[in-house]
Amino acid sequence: QVQLEESGGGSVRPGGSLTLSCAASGAIYSGGCLAWFRQTPGKEREGVAALYTGTGATYYAEAVKGRFTISQGNGANTIDLRMDSLKPEDTAIYYCAAVFNYLCGLDIDFGYWGQGTQVTVSS
To answer: pLDDT tens digits for 21-57?
Structure first.
């Protein structure tokens, strides 16, 4: 089993920045795809950004390109999501997701999910 621990959510004014972190632990025997998704009430969950730990390849949703940066964190299976120039429409619960095979992207099936962390962008 794999556990995902998220941290770094909070409230910020428009134009501000936040960094989310996700650490995967447990039965991990290979590189994998770690990603962030977000969801607001009444809307479907949407992919935000993903990173394949084996190669460092990254994937972004169009809505966040140029504003968000996903990167590997301090641990082998840790990722950070730096969010700059935040907008009110970025307000959502952000979920970390992971899958450990050779696939990565925002349109693949993820087998593991975190509990979610709230991000609120408001003046």
So the answer is: 999 988 777 789 999 999 999 999 999 999 999 889 9
Separation CA 83–CA 80 (nearest Å): 10
In this structure, how many other beta carbons lie within 10 angstroms of the beta carbon of residue 47?
Answer: 20
User: What distance in Å separates the CA atoms of residue 119 and residue 40, rounded to the nearest whole number?
Assistant: 10
Contact status, residue 20 vs residue 5, Cβ threshold 8 Å = no
pLDDT per residue as tens digits for the range 82-107: 999 999 999 999 999 999 988 999 99
Which residues are within 8 A (CB) of 44 and not within 5 positions of it... i.e. 6 or more apart? none
